[in-house]
């Protein structure tokens, strides 16, 4: 056999192999590759979209955290103001109660003083009557009267 004829004969099965490959094998492979490329493109697009959504979600979270911090700060300052107001109110009530207690104590002391004066007056009156009785029972004598008055003074 001649080398040219052998080449030509080998060429025929090769051409048939190429034709069968192009007609039956190549289209499913290309289809599978195209589907795979579409899946990869879709996955990359979804990943980009997920990154954008994640960035938006992080931004919203940061905004909400800032808003929450502001609200918390406001609530704390309001609570501190309210606490200070309650303390001031309690101080005022305590001062008012203290003033009432002091006034009541002064009134009680004044009443006790009045009672003591009344009791003292009654005792002085009783002593005066007693002294007058003793003076009237004896004769009128200046030295005797002086002695009785001195006794009255010591009893007071």
Automatic annotation (TrEMBL):
Residues 44-71 form a coiled coil. Keywords: ATP synthesis, Cell membrane, CF(0), Coiled coil, Hydrogen ion transport, Ion transport, Membrane, Transmembrane, Transmembrane helix, Transport. It is found in: Cell membrane; Endomembrane system. SUPFAM superfamilies: F1F0 ATP synthase subunit B, membrane domain. One of its GO terms (cellular component) is plasma membrane. InterPro entries: ATP_synth_B-like_membr_sf, ATP_synth_b/b'su_bac/chlpt, ATP_synth_F0_bsu_bac, ATP_synthase_B_chain. It is a single-pass membrane protein. The chain crosses the membrane at residues 6-26. GO terms for molecular function: proton-transporting ATP synthase activity, rotational mechanism; proton-transporting ATPase activity, rotational mechanism. Pfam families: ATP-synt_B. Its main location: membrane. The keyword DNA damage does not apply. The keyword Protein biosynthesis does not apply. F-type ATPases have 2 components, F(1) - the catalytic core - and F(0) - the membrane proton channel. F(1) has five subunits: alpha(3), beta(3), gamma(1), delta(1), epsilon(1). F(0) has four main subunits: a(1), b(2) and c(10-14). The alpha and beta chains form an alternating ring which encloses part of the gamma chain. F(1) is attached to F(0) by a central stalk formed by the gamma and epsilon chains, while a peripheral stalk is formed by the delta and b chains. F-type ATPases have 2 components, F(1) - the catalytic core - and F(0) - the membrane proton channel. F(1) has five subunits: alpha(3), beta(3), gamma(1), delta(1), epsilon(1). F(0) has three main subunits: a(1), b(2) and c(10-14). The alpha and beta chains form an alternating ring which encloses part of the gamma chain. F(1) is attached to F(0) by a central stalk formed by the gamma and epsilon chains, while a peripheral stalk is formed by the delta and b chains. PANTHER family: ATP SYNTHASE SUBUNIT B, ATP SYNTHASE SUBUNIT B', CHLOROPLASTIC. Component of the F(0) channel, it forms part of the peripheral stalk, linking F(1) to F(0). The b'-subunit is a diverged and duplicated form of b found in plants and photosynthetic bacteria. Belongs to the ATPase B chain family. This is ATP synthase subunit b. The lineage of its organism: Bacteria, Pseudomonadati, Pseudomonadota, Betaproteobacteria, Burkholderiales. The gene is atpF.
